[in-house]
Specification:
Layout: E1 3-8, H1 12-18, E2 28-34, H2 38-47, E3 55-56, E4 72-75, H3 82-91, E5 95-98, H4 106-119, E6 123-125, H5 133-144, E7 150-160, H6 171-174, H7 178-194, E8 200-206, E9 220-226, E10 232-238, E11 240-250, E12 253-257, E13 268-272, E14 278-279, H8 288-303, H9 311-330, E15 334-335
Parallel strand pairs: 1-2, 1-4, 2-3, 4-5, 5-6, 7-10
Antiparallel strand pairs: 7-11, 8-9, 8-15, 9-10, 11-12, 12-13, 13-14
Helix pairs in contact: 3-4, 4-9
Bound molecules: nicotinamide-adenine-dinucleotide.
Amino acid sequence: GRMGYAIVGLGNYGTRQIMPSFVHSRNARIAALVSGTPAKLERYGAEYDVPTTHRYSYQDFDRIRDNPDIDIVYVVLPVSMHAEYSIRASRAGKHVMCEKPMAMSAVECQSMIDAATAADRQLMIGYRSRFEPNNIHAIALARSGRIGAHRVFDSQHGFAASLQSGWRLDRSMSGGGSMMDIGIYGLNAARYMLGEEPTEVIAMDATDRTDPRFRTVEDRLLSTLRFPSGAVAQLVSSYSSHHNRYRLSGADGFIDADPGTPYEGQRLRLKAGDEDVRDVTRPVGPREQFAGQLDHLPTAIREGRRNIVPGEEGLADIRIIEAMYRSAAERQPVRLA
Ligand code: NAD
């Protein structure tokens, strides 16, 4: 049978992207809902056939322990609530899927990992691009040697935040600005395309602090990362301009993902050796990356394998983002362990 997910947080991403993707999944189903708003529990409970016995408030949350229909808890809350609900879910004996960015700090990430380990349950971070055919193909091309030695990765990710962007513009709930929310896609792609971990980062914060959107969080963050192979990455993250692309350039060509990590419409181009740039975009099924992400955790659990984007993967990104913020604040490079 399909494994049952409890969806925690019935906001934009949960209700508009995640929940409608279950119909395309093979081994996952919506088993329960958790919300502080009774009207949402009623509306989505009816829409997704979730019985009233399987609808929870935040006060009731720990009672999920007694519900064997719930195998996995999917945390789709503001970042400041990720650690608390992931840890409570682990303690209730459930596997956890937690949205990106994993948590407010590396310390919080580690406590989530520890709670899952103590409960002998899996923890997976919602890095959907790892299940999207063009990103999967881009990784294979990067590993194939077709573009020669990796030299430069560059990426720009951003959108124009509005004053209505809610918790995202409040550092106490988001942990940071554009880098935590959208720049993280470029950082994660740098790591999965290069297949190595950065040793040093230098970052510049270019935020207009008189802009009312950016009282507590950064707008533009420009970061340069150095990798052990000699490759470098340049990342632009923005809350005031639109971008969504990455490119890995090597001695013999490049892999260009533009757009790279949106919900749909990825395009992939390859230049290898003397070959002209050609379109190598893969066909993508409806909501394929979301369904693939939802199916991956049940499969990993059944097969007794670790999922491919565990807590350690989320922690690695948060550690680097903390180093970026420190570098920007101190105006000097920061070494990574
Ligand atoms: P949202 O504001 O639309 O939803 C957040 C939900 O949390 C709301 O339903 C809100 O009512 C609920 N909530 C509970 N307690 C709250 C509190 N104290 N304050 C504020 N809200 C509270 O946000 P979203 O866009 O759905 O983002 C939710 C999570 O999903 C975030 O971690 C975000 O980074 C992630 N996300 C991921 C992707 C992706 O592509 N992987 C895309 C968008 C969002």
